[in-house]
């Protein structure tokens, strides 16, 4: 049974991503570079407060940014407020010479570090979050109406950069389908910052004019608006798979001082999901002499690198590659392209030999000069190119035999010679680049090894150790580290990998119900190879705290391996991340772990995972007896064109129809909870309501929770929604009554939003 203590532990674990330092101290370092990138400071939260640390990598020093006790005393004396040195009343600082500045108690303060005296200081307001400032800090660009405007940061003068914007044909906005309108309204923002990129010399802005005039209009009804008035209808441009029209982006270069607009002399870019500027598919050359951008046709089978002349708008082709399925510059859809333009060459990512590797092309002629990396492993990210030494530094996965998803920092000559591992161990390495690229910050961990964060030089030598994560408060909740496992896929040949969380208070003599915490991709992985479970792992640890054994894995068709492994999902979104592999994994795990009760298996997932959770019950009713589907994309025919056509093909209506749970509703045999936000503008609530309608028509019992006003993630009612899901699983899968325990709401503020979206 699940007790009040189990629910309390589950609540603590669910809050882990939103409460830095409450359970794990020192697991994340977010550097704030100063002195032109020579030094940085960072803050470490302990749950109650923060300590501020100053680091000089060249000197190999790490020390408190100031004396916390003396500063607390000085601030208390100056403000008349009580100040705890272990819980200082500010989250960020400015180091200015021999002083530190910060905002506290509604005022701005400057404290001298030689005398530790504090005084009120002139407050410089932080930058407007809706503006994008220039590199030299003199001008900022923002959206106004349907156009882009500039503002002088010295005297406040404003002027229009464009004047011909109109509804659904405007400048600086991404597609409406990913504009997060519901979430932005909740946090008080009218829209996202403009999709623009400044030239290195701060004279020009790369932007695009977004054309959605012919894109399908969809509608959401807000039953109870914030003002308590009559229901409101919200209209959104949102293209479905197979629609004739999708959003497009017309690239423009705006001269901020001269007021000129140079338009790209090329066809508009197809932009089904995200702005090419925000995804870094369009960027400035380091010297500002050109803009480079990537494009693909609707079938996604050709990837082309273009050069745009910012003075004339002339566009030329640099490199182009065509394949049998989609050609992509990175297997992970939301990570930047693995492409780097050098002085005379291009480093180009390609999976032409079935593995993601770097190839070198002549920038002027487009001729292939040679393959730079090779082997049965994949390049993950270009970190640095030293053109003088003719060496590229990068991260790669597939070099650690125990876990092919772990990342290793490597180097190789641009001619393909001299390959070496910079981090030569069995750990996963998450890299943060220094401002001047003279060193890098390395967080090394595994799923069961807490991270150690260091600063390294490019030989791999540790310059200074920053943090060793303290997980003592995490283990005090009853948490135990997950087990990384390897089993065979349903084909009996392919290795697949996942994690297994043992239930709180684990006793191998007991039998435990199992929850498969699913997310099918194919654009991202469900399981991260590092200690931080990430957003996809938000629910696994709390479910284990409730007393469930929790399994999460990446089946065939997900990223991180070979091209053929990833392409197992191409045209097969209906397989929901290869659920057959999940079933095979569950059975293999139970062979050596008799405490896994395969007569009590449930599925739990959100978004694509909601689709997969319901699909598991419909395709494998003999295995999955219970399911929780939150915000599920249950019918590909009515989902985002960019996602569906990327992975099922641009002209494949039969596959789209197969990726519909709605048409299989009469197969339901177990207990299913459907949850959806009324104002979900990413996966519209009609997905769940279509499935509910078909279930009713098939005379099937199920539970349905529609959350008024909620967007895709339930950001302002997280704990309420999760408790409803936990209670359902405890009743229907564990077979007991849940305790009368109510988790406290999670308050979403600016600091938490910054943490969640960092």
Share of residues in strands: 25-35%
Subunit arrangement of the protein: single chain
Number of helices: 13
CATH superfamily of the largest domain: Alpha/Beta hydrolase fold, catalytic domain
Protein name: Prolyl oligopeptidase family serine peptidase
Pfam families: DPPIV_N, Peptidase_S9
InterPro entries: AB_hydrolase_fold (IPR029058), Peptidase_S9_cat (IPR001375), Peptidase_S9B_N (IPR002469), Serine_Prot_S9B/DPPIV (IPR050278)
GO molecular function, one term: serine-type peptidase activity
Describe the protein in words:
This is Prolyl oligopeptidase family serine peptidase. Residues 540-733 form the Peptidase S9 prolyl oligopeptidase catalytic domain. It comes from Solihabitans fulvus. The strands form 10 sheets. An 8-stranded mixed beta sheet has the order 37-38-40-39-41-42-43-44, with helices on both faces. It has 3 domains: 17-120, no CATH class; 129-294, 8 Propeller (Methanol Dehydrogenase, Chain A), CATH 2.140.10; 478-756, 3-Layer(aba) Sandwich (Rossmann fold), CATH 3.40.50. The two termini are 38 Å apart. The model has no long low-confidence stretch (mean pLDDT 96). The protein is 16% helix and 32% strand. A hairpin with a 5-residue loop joins strand 9 (131-133) and strand 10. It is α+β, with helices and mostly antiparallel strands and 758 residues long. It is built from 13 helices and 44 strands.
């Amino acid at each position: 049974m699940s007790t009040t203590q189990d629910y309390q532990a589950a609540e603590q674990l669910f809050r882990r991503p939103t409460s830095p330092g409450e359970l794990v101290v020192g697991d994340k370092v977010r550097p704030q570079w100063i002195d032109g990138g020579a030094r940085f400071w960072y803050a470490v939260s302990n749950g109650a407060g923060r300590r501020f640390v100053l680091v000089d990598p060249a000197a190999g020093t790490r020390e408190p940014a100031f004396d916390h006790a003396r500063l607390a005393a000085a601030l208390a004396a100056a403000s008349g407020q009580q100040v705890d040195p272990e819980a200082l009343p500010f989250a960020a600082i400015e180091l200015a010479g021999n002083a530190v500045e910060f905002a506290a108690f509604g005022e701005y303060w400057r404290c001298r570090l030689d005398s530790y005296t504090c005084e009120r200081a002139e407050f410089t307001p932080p930058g407007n979050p809706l503006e994008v400032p220039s590199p030299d800090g003199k001008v900022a660009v923002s959206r106004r109406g349907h156009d882009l405007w500039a503002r002088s940061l010295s005297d406040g003068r404003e002027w229009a950069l464009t004047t011909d914007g109109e509804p659904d044909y405007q400048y600086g906005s991404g597609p409406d389908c990913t504009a997060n309108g519901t979430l932005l309204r909740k946090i008080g923002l009218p829209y996202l910052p403009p999709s623009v990129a400044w030239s290195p010399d701060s004279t020009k802005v790369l932007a695009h004019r977004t054309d959605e005039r012919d894109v399908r209009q969809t509608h959401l009804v807000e039953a109870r608006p914030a003002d308590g008035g009559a229901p409101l209808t919200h209209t959104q441009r949102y293209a479905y798979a197979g629609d004739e029209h999708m959003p497009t982006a017309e690239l423009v270069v705006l001269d901020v001082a001269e007021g000129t607009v140079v338009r790209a002399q090329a066809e508009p870019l197809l932009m089904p999901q995200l702005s090419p500027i925000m995804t870094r598919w369009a960027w400035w050359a380091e010297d500002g002499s050109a803009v480079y951008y990537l494009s693909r046709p609707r079938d996604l089978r050709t990837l082309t690198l273009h050069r745009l002349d910012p003075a004339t708008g002339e566009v030329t082709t640099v490199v182009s590659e065509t394949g049998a399925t989609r050609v992509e510059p990175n297997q992970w859809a939301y990570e930047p392209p693995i492409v780097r333009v050098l002085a005379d060459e291009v480093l180009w990512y390609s999976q032409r030999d079935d593995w993601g590797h770097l190839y070198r092309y002549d920038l002027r002629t487009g001729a292939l000069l040679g393959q730079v990396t090779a082997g049965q492993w994949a390049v993950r990210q270009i970190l640095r190119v030293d053109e003088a030494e003719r060496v590229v530094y990068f991260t790669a996965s597939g070099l650690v035999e125990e876990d092919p998803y772990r990342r290793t920092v490597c180097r190789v000559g641009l001619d393909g010679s001299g390959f070496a591992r910079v981090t030569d161990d069995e750990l996963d390495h998450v890299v943060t680049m220094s401002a001047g690229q003279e060193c890098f910050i390395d967080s090394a961990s595994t799923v069961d090894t807490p991270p150690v964060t260091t600063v390294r030089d490019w030989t791999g030598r540790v310059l200074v150790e920053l943090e060793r994560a303290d997980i003592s408060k995490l283990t005090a909740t009853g948490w135990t580290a997950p087990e990384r496992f390897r089993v065979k896929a349903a084909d009996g040949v392919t290795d697949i990998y996942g994690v297994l969380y043992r239930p709180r208070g684990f006793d191998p003599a007991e039998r435990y119900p199992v929850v498969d915490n699913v997310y099918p991709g194919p654009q991202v992985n469900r399981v991260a190879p590092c200690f931080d479970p990430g957003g996809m792992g938000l629910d696994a640890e709390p479910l284990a705290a409730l007393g469930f054994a929790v399994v999460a894995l990446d089946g065939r068709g997900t990223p991180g391996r070979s091209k053929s492994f990833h392409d197992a999902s191409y045209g097969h979104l209906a397989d929901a991340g290869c659920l057959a592999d999940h079933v095979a994994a569950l059975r293999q795990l139970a062979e050596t772990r008799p405490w896994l009760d395969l007569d009590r298996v449930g599925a739990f997932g959100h978004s694509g995972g909601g689709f997969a959770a319901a699909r598991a019950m419909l395709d494998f009713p003999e295995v999955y007896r219970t399911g929780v589907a939150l915000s599920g994309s249950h019918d590909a025919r009515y989902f985002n064109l960019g996602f569906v056509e990327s992975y099922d093909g641009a002209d494949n209506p039969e596959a789209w129809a197969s990726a519909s749970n709605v048409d299989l509703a009469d197969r339901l045999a177990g207990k299913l909870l459907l949850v959806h936000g009324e104002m979900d503008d990413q996966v519209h609530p009609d997905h769940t309501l279509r499935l509910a309608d078909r279930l009713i028509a098939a005379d099937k019992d199920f539970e349905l929770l529609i959350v008024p006003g909620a967007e895709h993630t339930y950001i302002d009612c997280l704990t309420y929604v999760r408790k409803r899901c936990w209670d359902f699983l405890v009743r229907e899968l564990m077979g007991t009554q849940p305790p009368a325990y109510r988790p406290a709401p999670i308050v979403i503020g600016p600091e938490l939003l910054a943490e969640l979206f960092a």
